[in-house]
Amino acid sequence: MDTFVLRSFVTAIAILAVGASACGKSGSKTTDVKKSLEDGFAIGLLLPESKTTRYETFDKPLIEKYVHASCPKCTVLYQNANQDAAKQQTQADALLNQGIQVLIIDAVDAAAAASIVEKAKQQKVPVIAYDRFASGPIDSFVTFDSERIGQEQGKALLEAVSQGGDPKRGAIVMINGAITDPSSADYKRGAHSVLDGKVQIGFEVDTPDWSPDKAQQEMEQAMTKLGADKIIGVYVANDGMASGVIAALKGHGVTPIPPVTGQDAELAAIQRLISGDQYMTIYTPYSRQAEAAAKMALAAAQGKPVQGDDVRENATHHKVPTVQLPVVAVTKANVKDTVLADGIYKTAEICTSEYAPACKQAGLL
Question: Which residues, at least 6 apart from 259, have a Cβ–Cβ distance to it below 8 Å?
Answer without folding.
Answer: 156, 157, 160, 161, 232, 233, 234, 279, 280
